[in-house]
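Quick question: what would this complex look like in 3D?
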Amino acid sequence: MSDKPPFDPQALIEAMAPLLGLAIKPEYRPAVVANLKLCASFAALIEGFPLGDHEEPAPVFTA
Amino acid sequence: MSASASEIAAAVRGGTTSARAVAEACLKRIAAHDGRVGAFTDVTAERALARADALDAARARGEALGPLSGVPFAVKNLFDLQGLSTRAGSKINRDDPPAKRDAALVERLEAAGAVCVGALNMGEYAYDFTGENIHDGPSRNPHDLGHMSGGSSGGCGSAVAAGFVPIALGSDTNGSIRVPSSLCGLFGLKPTYGRLSRARSFPFVSSLDHLGPFARSVADLALSYDAMQGRDADDPHCAPIPAAPMSASLGEGAKGLRIAVAGGYFAEHGLPEAFEAVARCARALDTTRTAEIPQAHLARASAFLITTTEGAALHLDRLRRRPDDFDPAVRNRLLAGAMVPASLVVKAQKFRAWFRHAMAALFEEVDIILAPATPCRAPKLGQSVMELGGESLPVRANLGLYTQPISFIGLPVAAVPIWTQGETLPIGVQVIGPPWREDLVLHVAAALEALGVAAAPVAAGFE
């Protein structure tokens, strides 16, 4: 993962907000960016942990 | 209303007082004192008095009364109460039509004779550890009104610690029962995920949401818990297992149980009082054993990602239509959560399965794990930063540092309140058990209470 480009939360917002139909007003943006950085740091921790292909995701749906 | 639920029920059943007299005294107390506490958002006086009169009439007819007869209780305002809009701490949801039917747990408590007196303040949409609410004002800590009650079930902590009600029902997704229990000095039970029905309560994170009681004694905790157990087809996550009543066996104690103190993650990132409280419990229970909860920081990270993304999915339409009507702190976290890629969230759910297996292995070695409930005593209202281990950390996220990894895999936990002489504010300890072993956590909580280590008095000035 060391060659991964640095995470750009502004670019993610530009791409995702229209897809989701969300308006990110300028006054929201600094806090949304800060929260996205926090999410990315937590996601990176999980990504660094080896999980096998056969590790089942936790939620169970019963038909 | 400093009487316990068991005392009230015994008095009403025995006819030494009426349910009406109890309800009137409770309502009077709330009217007199809640203005300075902020525990209630709705007081359902008419409903409570009608219910109390019906109980008194039933007794007069010679009918047998239930184990909670005449016991006043209140619920976090995400539980449906017939005739009220379920606001879930928000401005937006108070535009919803009134609920047509009570939440399942409200129905079960009332079927046992309890009397609902109202709905309680909470952090918006339960995404909160402070007990502050931008729309309704904060629920204050009765032990020091300048301090937080803890959240998100803040009104529950305030109402029980102020002696307004002996029992309150809250929800806990990442710590929202255990954090206010710790900050307000109460016993709180977060049962195993799937134990109690969530039907007709407003959700936050379906994968992680639990409901449970607050009380000032373990006996009252067990009494209410017993009345609420049992499967419910209206909540698909409510496990199809029979009720396992606890009240009769509470005195079994902790003898013979293998009890360990959580090390590593749970012995770092907190103030000395958090660890001292755990150490006092360990000394009283005569254990020197420690247990390492594996990868606890990843459990917290995973719970965080699942919470923010599932929460965002729940609120997506409201985020589009009424973003300015949210608490900005909640909105901005949910907006970020909406943009987290699904592949990362599925990994967090895969880690949840890994962590469950790892903890199952640990519970082969020990029966109970003790850990701090919060890293500090109640912060001041409005406080946004706290100093931990030389670092400045945001209060909101870090109050749940120790609770989040545990609810992540749905383990049953009793929060027990610990006091230090000379301190006006308490701090809680988590008594954690393996899945479906609420009996063990309540036995240990009851032992700590019997030993005088844990206690939950009504706050000074409210007795």
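Answer marked as accepted. Residues 29-47 of chain A form the longest helix (19 residues).
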